[in-house]
Amino acid sequence: MLSTWLSVNNIFAMPIEWGMGYNYVSSRYANTVNTIELRSYELLNAFMAYEGEQFRAAISVRNMTDEVYAPWSDVYYPNQVALGSPRMIEASLRLHF
Q: Measuring CA to CA, which residue among 7, 85, 74 is closest to residue 46?
């Protein structure tokens, strides 16, 4: 597994932050006898945020390449896997009181 993030603050001397993340998970076995293998996958994420005195507004894009992947399986149910989320856009607003 490899995970790395990069972010840059104060772009163009403004309170803007931009960032990207990369996650890699290698293939691994889904059962205790190592006969079912989950494939490796890579995820690319990005975000941009603006921060004012009383708030922070951000937008994020997760799984930018819309990768189909299975991040998890239970050894007691080896023929079932949990699929990862498809491409998703999230907006958030954090207020300071």
A: 7
**DSSP assignment letter at 83:** P
Structure tokens at 76: 């007691």
What's at 24, amino acid-wise? Y
Q: Which residue's structure tokens are 């894009």?
A: 61
> What would the mean pLDDT of 69-73 be, rounded to a whole number?
91
Cβ proximity of 17 and 39 under 8 Å = no
- The C-alpha torsion from 30 through 36 and 39 to 40, rounded to 10°, is 50
Q: What is the mean pLDDT of residues 40-61?
A: 97
| Residues in a beta bridge with 91 | 59
